[in-house]
Predict the structure.
Amino acid sequence: MEKKLEPSFKEGGKLHKFWPLYDGFATFLFVPGHVTHNGVHVRDSIDLKRTMSVVILALVPCLLFGMYNTGYQHFLALGQTPELGASFLYGLLKVLPIVVVSYAVGLGIEFAFCIIKKHPISEGYLVSGILIPLVLPADIPLWMVALAAAFAVIIGKEIFGGTGMNVLNVALVARAFLFFAYPTYMSGDMWVSMNDRNGYEVIKEGLVDGYSGSTLLGQVADAGFNGTFKNVAGADITSTVFSDAFFGFIPGSIGETSTLACLIGAAILIISGIGSWRIIFSTFLGAYAIGLLFNAVAGSNAYMAMPAHYHLVFGGLAFGAVYMATDPVSAAQTKLGKLIYGFGIGAFAVIIRVVNPAYPEGVMLSILFFNVMAPIIDYFVVQSNINKRVKRFKLASNGVK
């Protein structure tokens, strides 16, 4: 069937304008047999398609747990005991439309650009299309998801030349757009649905369709760190707050709550050679080091008094370190540069949290800032290596060993 359709899409066929679409769908599950035409190209077993497939695989733990946690928080807010099956089903019905809209709008725009510019479809948005929903709250209106996906693809990607040319992480561009355009939906408060899993309103005295419950970072920003934390049902979870945050049983954006799921994804990326362990490790190190520094000089600032290890599991630090900071396009490229880049992201994220509680998260702004700084970091690292080599050469030329 595929071979019968192909002549219609090739040059001279009546549908030749849509060749990029046909080629993209026809080669979706395997590497196409395209050949290079200009220059010398060295190829290995890892190409963009395989890279994107591995990243999507690494995101599956966060996606699945995010679906479950969405339902878990819903039933917890109702005062009911969250059951595994019911929680996952509710979260699936809540999260799946967000994923579908993200892919439909983003890929639709990318297809249009490929047809207009007459170049093959890139697999880059396959990852961005799932990252965007994972950094959004589960109650986000679908029209906002569509708007954010369109903004991210056009302004954050295509305007720079497409996949591999973007300066900023595409998914974070979408989140930043919504954060500043619609701050009430992207603040430290997470709306928890009060509808049952069949979509009917729960009739219960004292309950409404939904309410805003502060995330753990939002609680610290609002009331200061007094050593106590509450869940969406108002119960004290202080004794288990670290483990709850590590496993992910807390309110937050869909994919960012579980540090454990992020670490599973990190293992997949590092073992496959796709993700940089230097960036992941140094991001956690930077956050912890600055957290300890603030603990040592804690004053009236709420976040200064919060234990440094809480910063590692609260908010989106783990998700940002594993999936956002390691973006090979917008991250630093040199080995030393990756360590500096990651350390800076972790440190700056905690500084934003501490200095300006109006931004209780901090990770998004930190990564975007260091996306811009990455070329500068690499420049100075490379220049430093050049200077050292020139110095050694001059010493060798003068007979100095």
About this structure: The chain has two domains: 9-30+49-185, 224-385. The beta strands are 189-193, 210-214.
